[in-house]
Amino acid sequence: DTTQMSVKVRIHESHIEKVKKGLKAQVRVDAFPDRVIEGEVIKVGLLPDSQNRWMNPDLKVYLSTIKINGNHEWVKPGMSAKVEVMVKEIPDAIYVPIQAISPENNEHFAYLAGAGKPERRKVTIGEFNDEFIEIKSGLKEGEKVLLRAPSDNKEGSKDEKKADEKPATPATAPAAAKA
């Protein structure tokens, strides 16, 4: 019966605590990447999936099920998909790409792009996913940060530095954990 479809996902142990039954999800079928299907977590695995343990015994993933809402005739059994589970909504958050933050001695720093030497600034971080990290303090909306800490022994060209700049962005979408 293709009127009630679901997606089986493997959720890494570092994310499983955040994923709960009833959370909303977005599903993108690989064959139709521009189409987003709404879904809902209906089952979260209690034990790690042992099917592929022989390949990587240290990897712990939990087999979980996302129900696809609605009837989508173009979705066929066996198709591959990417799923984002909406674990938390953070209104009016400032966030930057996760690689823009440098941890040092239990503190976190961002490097701001400027006219001269990049400015190192201490930041307080909050929630994060695989791509972005929330900045609770230390940055203002629109400030441009470097995607990586500048190297002390090598000066990049202005063009290289420009390519690494990303503005701090206010979040309007919910934070997500990728499955």
Your description of this structure?
- By secondary structure, the protein is mainly β.
- The chain has 2 domains: 6-87, Efflux pump adaptor protein, beta barrel domain (Elongation Factor Tu (Ef-tu), domain 3, Beta Barrel); 93-178, conserved putative lor/sdh protein from methanococcus maripaludis s2 fold, CATH 2.40.420.
- It is built from 1 helix and 14 strands.
- It has one helix at 158-164; strands spanning 6-12, 24-29, 37-43, 61-68, 81-88, 93-97, 101-104, 107-112, 119-128, 132-137, 144-146, 165-167, 169-171, 175-178.
- The strands form 3 sheets. A 6-stranded antiparallel β-sheet has the order 1-4-3-2-5-14, with no helix packed on it. Strands 7-8-9-10-6-13 form a 6-stranded antiparallel β-sheet, with no helix packed on it.
- It is elongated.
Any descriptors?
six-stranded antiparallel β-sheet, Elongation Factor Tu (Ef-tu), domain 3, 1 helix, 179 residues, conserved putative lor/sdh protein from methanococcus maripaludis s2 fold, mainly beta, 2 domains
Query: If strands are numbered along the chain, what order do they take across the biggest sheet?
Result: 1-4-3-2-5-14
Biggest pleated-sheet summary: 6 strands, antiparallel
What's the CATH C level of the largest domain? Mainly Beta
In the CATH scheme, what's the topology name of the largest domain? conserved putative lor/sdh protein from methanococcus maripaludis s2 fold
- The CATH architecture of the largest domain can be given as Beta Barrel
How many domains would you count in the coordinates?
2
